[in-house]
Amino acid sequence: MTGFPAIDGRRLLARLDAFAAIGATPAGGVNRPALSEADRAARALLADLGAARGFSLFQDAAANLFLRRAGADDRRPPFLIGSHLDSQPTGGRFDGALGTLAALEVLETLEDRGIVTAGPVELVAWTNEEGSRFAPGAFGSQSAAAGALPAGWPETVGSDGARLGDELAATLAALPQAAMRPLGGPFAGYLELHIEQGPLLEREGALIGVVEGIQGTRWLEVAIEGQVAHAGTTPLADRRDAMAAAAAVITRLQTTVMPADADARLTVGRLTIAPGAVNVIPGEVAFSIDLRHPSGAEIDRLEAEITALAARIAAAGGCRASVRRSMDVAPARFDRRLVGIVEGAAERRGFASRRLFSGAFHDALFMARLGPAAMVFVPCRAGLSHNEAEYVEPHQAIAGAQVLCDATLEAVAASVAA
Ligand code: HGY
Ligand code: MN
Ligand code: MN
To answer: Under 8 Å CB-to-CB from 395, ≥6 apart: which residues?
Structure first.
C-alpha cells in the first residue's frame, strides 16, 4: 500500500449511476448528445456537486466546464484532470463519464483529507468530444488548444438540424454560476482516465493501461453524384446510379484497402441517399469515412488512395465523386515523465498494467500539443464501446480512479519541483 489517500469507491460508483440516469436509454446505455438538454443536465449536476464542495466554477467560450480546487499558491498554473460528458446516440455509461467523475472523486478525496496541493487542481469536462451531433469531435479541447473556436463555428448544422451557435449559447446560459474565462491558458499538466474501448487490456488480464500516445484520425465526407432516373424504364447501360458506385467504393475499402494494412481502420458510419424513393435511381449518395492510423504519412497515403479509387469507380459508372475532410487529427505521443508516473502509480498499487497506444482519439490528444499530458485506461467488457452494452467492472473503475488520484498527486508535486 502507499501513503497516497484511498478514493471513495462507493461514492464514485454512485456518481456513475446518477449520471447514467441522464439521457438513459431503454437498452442500458446513454444518449447525451453534445450541447443537448441531456448534456446540459449532466453539466448542471456536475456544477452542483462541485459547488457543494466549495470548488469554484468556470466555463470558456467553447463551454468547457472547470471545477477548481485551490492550491497553496494559486498563481501557479492548474493541473487539469477530466474527460467529457457528451455521448454517442447509442453510447455507453462509461465513455467520458468515467474520466470526468473519477476526476471529481480525486478533488473530493483531496478535500476530504484536507490535502494541500502546491498549485490548483481543476476538473475539466470538455465540450463535444464525440462529434456525433456537431462535427468535428473534440470541439472543446481543440478550441482550447487553438485558443479560438473554429472559423464559422456558429453556422455548423448538427445531425439533427440544430445550429451550433444556438446550442452553445443555450449551454453557456444554463450555467450562469460558472464564471467565464479565456479559452486555453497555461496548465501544469493533464491526466485523463478513460475506458480502452478496445479488447487488449481485457485479453491480457491487465487492469491498467499506461497510454503512450494516440493514433491519428481523419474524417472524410465522400459525395457521389449520378443521375436521378426511373427505376423501371432505365436499362443498366443508361444508368448513372450513385448508389451502385458508392456501394462499389465501400466494398473496396473493406475488401482491399483495409486488409492491406493491419494498422489501418476504415469505417463508413453514416450514409445518405437522395432522393431516397424506392422506385427512383439515386442521384446523390454521401457517406462518411472515419480513417485512423498510427502514422500521419500513412493517413495521407490512404486518403490519396481512397480519393483516386472513388474517382475511378464513379467515372466507370458515369458518376462523379468528391472527397472533403471534416476532421483531421494528427497522431500524438504523451509526455514520458507523466507516462512513467502513471505506470509507477499502477505498480505501487499492485495493479497489472501494460503500455499501449490509443485507437480512439481523446481530448488528451489536444492537450498534449500544449503541455505535458497522459492517460490512464481501464478495460471494458469485450472491448465494446460506442455501444449501449459498454461495461466496466466496479473494481476496474475504482482502480482507474485510484491510479488517477495517485498519479495526479505525484505529478502536481513533481511539476512544482521541476
Ligand atoms: O471516435 C473516437 O475515437 C472517440 O471515442 N470519440
Ligand atoms: Mn470518450
Ligand atoms: Mn466516444
So the answer is: none
Cell digits of residue 189: 499538466
Task: Kindly indicate whether the domain formed by 9-213+332-417 is annotated with CATH number 2.60.120.560.
Answer: no
Cα torsion at 169, 174, 178, 183 (round to 10°)? -20
Q: Is the CB of 39 under 6 A from ligand 1?
A: no
Mutate to test the pocket of ligand 1, among 30, 130, 377 (most ligand atoms within 8 A of CB): 130
Atom of ligand 1 nearest to the CA of 385: 5
Tell me: the pLDDT tens digits for 182-198?
999 999 999 999 999 99
Domain with CATH 3.30.70.360 in the chain: 216-329
Q: Which of 362, 384, 385, 390 to mutate to test the pocket of ligand 1 (most atoms within 8 A of CB)?
A: 362
Residue 149 and residue 143 in contact, taking contact as beta carbons nearer than 8 Å: yes
In 3D, which of 285, 252, 290, 247 has the Cα closest to residue 268?
A: 290
- Inter-residue contact 134 to 158 (CB < 8 Å): yes
Share of the chain above pLDDT 70, in %: 99
* pLDDT, mean of residues 4-11: 97
Q: How do residues 206-255 score in pLDDT, each as one tens digit?
A: 999 999 999 999 999 999 999 999 999 999 999 999 999 999 999 999 99
- What is the number of the ligand 1 atom nearest to the C-alpha of 292? 3
Q: Is 284 in the pocket of ligand 1 (CB under 6 A)?
A: no
Mutate to test the pocket of ligand 1, among 129, 266, 384 (most ligand atoms within 8 A of CB): 129
Asked whether residue 75 carries a pLDDT value surpassing 50, the answer given is yes
CA 130 to ligand 3 centroid distance, Å: 5
| CATH code for residues 216-329 | 3.30.70.360
Q: Which residues belong to CATH 3.40.630.10 in the chain? A: 9-213+332-417
